[in-house]
Design brief:
about 35% helix, alpha/beta, about 425 residues, binds oxidized coenzyme A, Formyl-CoA:oxalate CoA-transferase, three-stranded antiparallel beta sheet
């Protein structure tokens, strides 16, 4: 039995943030029924397309293991069906712009009255405050959540990161809120509202930078390279390039081949407990006892010099050779892996973190499987649904509507354009 088997999810999500949340629930075994607009469906089905007439990878990689039903919620019959779903589902997840759900009449008060056990989970860009009515996409959240102002180099513009911490990060937060509310319901018998704002989710992931903001009141941030460079700090946490965000200084260093390979680099951490080993590996044994290098506080003003010397060593090795040598000495480090290298990595295939999925319209493609591994409920990645693939099945088997009612719904156009065959 899957961990969330028996849990029915009315998936009213679109684009990336909401779908990542419901995909996780589906991987854990929930029956996730995605409600989509007839004709177009989730807008991502048709975005960044690479194969003609096939759902985009953007869509397929965010909507595995779900069923799809088409329903026009601007059609009264469509709304009737949606309310039937509210009655039988355990969780509703949505990430529409602020106000959309209320305009549909799906207020928390009404949903709670119709199905007191239902958990209603929402993602919005911002929580209550000056921006609560704003529409938000990934990079807006990265900027408003403190990630952009603290990412990049001091002398450059703020940077967004490729990791989708605003969308997928918030989806992950919301999934935790939902399973927590499901657990609470086992005691209380009642559902509750679960909200996660993207700004809040990003800030949660940037909490070390709020830590540093407060440390600034008590003096310079000595582990930042700019301290050793003698550059004064301003009143806000600066961008720290590739400095480590933790207590053990680290940097990205060039490896053999860096002149032509944009990813011939390694992340190298000068972890204090292995400092003596680092000195031996790079050929600076006197640094083990030299008071200018022996202890961590003495090294902080000299990070540029120290990492410069370590880089002279890493440039004589490929990133993988350097990894092998450094791991022998328990020196924490990591190669900068390209997406190509990750896609080809055998061990990621073996753990199911990278999976090959077959799709009737696009053929085989790679996806990221469930990164969270449960010992008793392993995740099996199933292809994303075609638009409206399960409409009949859901009306009949989940909502248990009789033939006359289904015919009336179809005839109204609520599930999509009416073909003669369907209407007769
Ligand atoms: N049938 C008919 N209409 C439907 C429908 C259906 N099945 N599903 C949705 N709609 C309608 C809604 O009723 C709404 O119409 P109204 O504005 O007339 O009430 C409209 O479609 C969708 O609303 P939207 O404003 O959410 O969509 P958008 O494309 O303009 O905005 C986004 C997209 C992502 C900016 C916005 O949804 C948002 O801010 N969401 C919250 C934050 C979020 O999750 N952002 C991350 C997105 S991923 O980067």
């Amino acid at each position: 039995m899957k961990a969330l088997e028996g849990v029915k999810v009315l998936d009213f999500t679109h684009v990336q943030s909401g779908p990542t949340c419901t995909q996780l629930l589906a991987w854990f075994g929930a029956d996730v029924i995605k409600v989509e607009r007839p004709g177009t469906g989730d807008i991502t089905r048709g975005q960044l397309c690479d194969v003609p007439d096939a759902d985009s990878l953007y869509f397929t990689m965010l909507n595995h293991n779900k069923r799809s039903i088409t329903l026009d919620t601007k059609n009264p019959r469509g709304m009737e069906v949606l309310w039937e779903m509210v009655k039988v589902c355990d969780v509703m997840v949505e990430n529409f712009a602020p106000g959309v759900l209320d305009r549909m009449g799906l207020t928390w008060a009404k949903v709670h009255e119709v199905n007191p056990r239902m958990i209603v989970a929402s993602i919005k860009g911002f929580g209550a405050g000056p921006y609560e009515d704003c529409k938000v996409y990934e990079n807006v959240a990265q900027c408003a959540g403190g990630a952009a102002s603290t990412t990049g180099f001091r002398d450059g513009v703020p940077l967004v990161t490729g990791a989708q911490i605003g969308d997928s990060g918030t989806g992950l937060h919301l999934a935790l809120g939902i399973v927590t509310a499901l657990y609470h319901r086992t005691h209380s018998g009642l559902g509750q509202k679960v909200d996660c704002a993207m700004q809040d989710g990003v800030l949660n992931l940037c909490r070390v930078k709020l830590r540093d903001q407060q440390r600034l009141d008590h003096g310079p941030l000595k582990e930042y390279s700019q301290f050793g460079e003698g550059v004064p700090f301003g009143d806000a946490v600066p961008r720290a390039g590739n400095d480590s965000g933790g207590g053990q200084p680290g940097r990205i260093l060039k490896c053999k081949g860096w002149e032509t390979d944009p990813n011939a680099y390694i992340y190298f951490i000068t972890q204090a407990p292995v400092w003596e080993k680092i000195c031996d590996v790079i050929g600076e044994p006197t640094w083990k006892t030299d008071p200018n290098y022996a202890k961590p506080p003495a090294r902080l003003p000299r990070l540029n010099e120290i990492f410069g010397r370590i880089e002279e060593w890493t440039m004589t090795k490929t990133k993988f050779e350097a990894m092998d040598i450094l791991n022998e000495y328990d020196i924490p480090c990591g190669p900068i892996l390209s997406m190509k290298e990750i896609a080809e990595e055998k061990s990621l295939r073996e753990t199911g973190t990278v999976v090959e999925v077959d799709h009737p319209k696009r053929g085989k493609y790679l996806s990221v499987g469930n990164p969270i591994k449960l010992s008793n409920s392993p995740s099996e990645v199933k292809r994303s649904p075609l638009l409206g693939e399960h409409t009949d099945e859901v009306l009949r088997d989940v909502l248990k509507l009789d033939e006359a009612r289904i015919a009336a719904i179809v005839e109204s156009g609520a599930t999509g354009a009416v073909t003669r065959a369907a209407a007769e």
